[in-house]
Design brief:
The chain is mainly β and about 150 residues long. It has a domain of about 100 residues: Immunoglobulin-like, CATH 2.60.40. The chain is about 5% helix and about 35% strand. The protein has one helix and nine strands. Strands 1-2-9-8 form a four-stranded antiparallel β-sheet, with no helix packed on it. Strands 3-4-7 form a three-stranded antiparallel β-sheet, with no helix packed on it. A hairpin with a 3-residue loop joins strand 1 and strand 2. The chain is elongated, with a radius of gyration of 22 Å.
Length: about 150
Amino acid sequence: MLLPSIFGEDLLDDWMEFPRMDFPDIDRKLYGKHAANVMKTDVHEHDDAYEVDIDLPGFKKDEIKISLDNGYLTVAAEKALDNDKKTLKGKVIRKERYSGSMQRSFYVGENVTDGEIKAKFEDGVLKLTVPKKNTEKVPEKKLIAIEG
């Protein structure tokens, strides 16, 4: 059944939430109800490298930081929260655009150096190229005989 989407994802979202006895949802203010949907990532494998595409709509190049530490490639993005309730256009009734900080880490191996990773940001998509290093061949799947 489809319900009108006036206040939340559907009309009953805000009315059907029961108080929780644990820590409050701090991330909800930043990420909204769909926190898992931020930093959507596609990873493509090529013969000599991996290509990682990360969606970062609304971010600028200077709001994104990429670091490499102990074999972990970390991508962090941060937008300042706009706490002003009034704008030149009037009072904010609904705010769906993302603001806050997020990060994601990928294990790329300890032999990869920061100079070998290429990064390009255009049209809201961060494109990373990470070379393959010391790839050990995974043994083929073999069946194990069952006795008895």
